[in-house]
Amino acid sequence: MARPLARLFAIVLVAVIGLTACTGGGDSAISGNYRQDTLAVVTSLRNAITLPDDAPEKSAAQAEARQLINDFAARYRRDSRVSGLSSFTTMQTALNSLAGHYSSYPNRPVPEKLKKRLEKEFRMVELALNREA
């Protein structure tokens, strides 16, 4: 009697874990619409890097930027419909640059040279999105 119950319990447990793993986190700002998601990430990252260093919301903005970078990359990196677009490759370059800075120098402000480069890449992404639309 115990053996069939143990098997049933194991099957139910695997099904529950499998189904909950398949559902998204729900709290992600990434919707699945590439164009809207890209523009939202660009706007959020611009806000995060332009905040003054002494702003009280700076650390929250950086944490949100890191989460958006991870969510965006996880959502679109393997999507063959967008991975070949120039807006995507430029966006990946910008995201990798900013993520690299945040992971290597978490307590330092973003250097002016990197800010200028990111702003240039963000403009290129927006132009490419307008062309691709």
Assembly type of the chains comes to: single chain
Kindly report the average pLDDT value: 86
Largest sheet: none
If you compute it from the alpha carbons, what radius of gyration comes out, rounded to the nearest whole angstrom?
20 Å
Approximate helicity band: over 70%
- Low-confidence stretches are none
- Overall geometric form: elongated
Distance between the termini: 62 Å
Counting DSSP E segments of at least 2 residues, the number of strands comes to 0
CATH topology: Methane Monooxygenase Hydroxylase, Chain G, domain 1
Succession of helices and strands: HHHHH
Query: Count of helices?
Result: 5
CATH homologous superfamily classification = Photosystem II Pbs27
CATH A-level architecture: Up-down Bundle
Proportion in β-strands: under 5%
Level-1 CATH class name: Mainly Alpha
Number of domains: 1
Which structural class fits the helix and strand makeup? mainly alpha
Subunit structure: Monomer. Forms a complex with a monomeric, partially assembled PSII. This is probably the complex in which D1 is assembled and/or replaced.
Organism: Synechococcus elongatus (strain ATCC 33912 / PCC 7942 / FACHB-805)
InterPro entries: PSII_Psb27, PSII_Psb27_cyano_bac, PSII_Psb27_sf
Membrane topology: Lipid-anchor
Question: What this model shows, in words?
Answer:
It is elongated and about 70 Å long. It has a single domain (29-132), classed as Photosystem II Pbs27 (Methane Monooxygenase Hydroxylase, Chain G, domain 1, Up-down Bundle), CATH 1.20.58. 73% of the residues lie in helices and 0% in strands. Helix 2 (34-50) packs antiparallel against helix 3 and helix 4 runs antiparallel to helix 5 (112-132). The mean pLDDT is 86. The chain is mainly alpha-helical and 133 residues long. The chain is built from 5 helices and no strands.
